[in-house]
Amino acid sequence: MKKILVANRGEIALRVMRSAKEMGIKTVAVYSDADIDAPHVKFADQAFRLGPAPSSQSYLLSDKIIEIALQHEVDGIHPGYGFLSENAAFAEAVTKAGIKFIGPSPHAIEVMGNKLAAKETVSHYKIPMLGGTAGAISSVEEAQKIANEVGYPILIKAAAGGGGKGMRVVQEEKQLAEEMKRAISEAQSAFGDGSVFIEKYVTAPRHIEIQVLFDSHGNGVYLFERECSIQRRHQKVIEEAPSAVLTPELRKAMGEAAVNVGKSCQYEGAGTVEFLMDEKLNFYFLEMNTRLQVEHPVTEMITGLDLVKEQIKVARGEKLSYTQDDLQINGHAIELRLYAEDPANNFLPYTGTLKRYRPADGPGVRVDSGFEEGMSIPVHYDPMIAKIAVHGADRSEAIARMIRVIDEFQLEGIENTLSFGRFVMQHEAFVSGHYSTHFVPSFFKPELLQSNNEEFSELSAAIAAINYHINKNKENTGAAIENPPSEGWKARKWKPMTH
Question: According to the model, what pLDDT value does residue 452 have?
Answer without folding.
Answer: 55
